[in-house]
Design brief:
14 helices, 5-stranded antiparallel beta sheet
């Protein structure tokens, strides 16, 4: 279902839709036990909810395609991620309320740890705290590049934002390859233009990276950096206008706040924990129609390759499920933006467990919330872009199509 059709069918009413995204939800079996993180976790609340819901598995982008968090979330918001592409740099900028200008080129940066040969030994520099990251950003702000104004802003932990803003006539290009090789044991990649018109911008980034390497030398554990998601600010259809929903987002991490802002959702201020997010949700529940709430810990543990930590993160999320149900949403979706199996220590292409709970739902035979259980669900394996239209229908927010 495309956004034009949704715009035609959407009707307002007083029903409420809650989308709870467990980042990196899906996993793979542990080689010793044959059980995934969801199967190993004690998730009695999720299992009970699944037994009262319609279940399935979502495909964020396409079969066999490993998605980033940006495309994964856009799909759950109803946007085709192959049509609406958004660079990570823009999302980080919006997430920290940076005033991105149309001519800016933004990139997401990671501080990392390099060995004596310049090879990455830790892509996240031990997840240094935000205060340490801010101090390093201050050092990098001293770098000067010809013809551009440079911004280096801390985001959260090891993450930072790089923005290049032209000071002279001419345009910068965002057609640049990532310098993050997405694995350890190899050096960061050299900045590279993806189109001839991007060569001048690539040279500026090369100068930045070379100067940054000199200034970070000896700064353990963050003695290097990688860059990815070079982008300029895109224009996307406005979510509240398309779906006719008063929509808000509750998220701790800046990137997910940025995603919500990009599509026109209101982002509510909240605390630093998931319990804070749930309390923020509760405080604003009577005011709005659509609520997106984000849970990060499962993805972080999966990316660290820590199976037991991901199990614990899933169990912690499970303990919050009763509080979500107490709000009595007309439609409750538990979804993931992508799978992050601990055995891969990264994102993967595997379909993601999904459930939809509503008084109008046709329950299926699923009796647990896991990859194998959801495979037996009535929703089957379906594109994540169809999740929100399903919710709209169950919330009775679609008119009939045709005569």
């Amino acid at each position: 279902m495309d956004l034009d059709l949704i715009r035609q069918l959407a009707v307002p009413n007083d029903t409420k839709i809650l989308l709870a995204v467990v980042d990196g939800l899906g996993g793979l079996p542990h080689p010793e036990t044959g059980r995934s993180e969801l199967q190993a976790a004690n998730t009695r609340h999720l299992d009970r909810l699944a037994a009262e819901s319609a279940c399935g598995l979502t495909i964020p982008v396409a079969h066999g395609v490993t998605p980033g968090s940006g495309p994964g979330h856009l799909a759950l918001f109803g946007y085709d991620p192959l049509r609406y592409t958004v660079g990570r740099g823009v999302l980080e900028g919006l997430g920290i309320d940076f005033d991105l200008q149309p001519q800016d080129v933004a990139a997401r940066g990671n501080f990392c740890t390099l060995d004596d040969q310049g090879r990455i030994t830790d892509r996240r520099a031990g997840r240094i705290d935000t205060e340490q990251s801010a101090a390093l950003c201050q050092v990098l702000r001293e770098i000067e590049l010809p013809g551009v104004r440079l911004f280096v802003e801390p985001v959260r932990e090891h993450r930072f934002l790089l923005v290049l803003r032209p000071q002279e006539a001419g345009e910068l290009s965002d057609q640049l390859a990532d310098t993050d090789p997405q694995r350890e044991g190899v050096p960061p990649l050299a900045p590279r233009a993806l189109a001839p018109e991007a060569e001048a911008t690539a040279e500026l980034v090369r100068r930045f990276v070379a100067s940054a390497r000199e200034r970070l030398d000896g700064c353990q554990p963050a003695n290097g950096l990688t860059l990815r998601g070079f982008a300029r600010h895109p224009q996307l259809p406005c979510f509240p206008e398309v779906f006719r929903l008063r929509a808000v987002a509750v998220a701790v991490y800046p990137m997910y706040r940025g995603l919500a802002k990009l599509v026109g959702m209101t982002v509510l201020p909240t605390g630093s924990t998931y319990d804070d997010e749930v309390e923020t949700l509760r405080q604003h529940w009577d005011e709005l129609d659509f609520f997106f709430i984000h849970y990060k810990a499962a993805d972080s543990a999966g990316e660290d390759g820590d199976f037991e930590a991901k199990v614990a993160a899933l169990e912690a999320f499970d303990q919050a499920v009763p509080k979500l149900r107490e709000l009595a949403p007309d439609v409750l979706m538990i979804a993931g933006d992508h799978s992050t199996p601990s055995v891969l220590a990264g994102h993967s292409w595997h379909p993601v467990p999904f459930l939809l709970h509503s008084k109008l739902v046709r329950r299926d035979e699923v009796d647990a919330f896991s990859e194998s259980a959801c495979l037996r669900g009535s929703l089957g394996i379906f594109p994540a872009t169809e999740a929100l239209p399903l919710a709209m229908a169950h919330a009775q927010r679609f008119s009939k199509y045709g005569a």
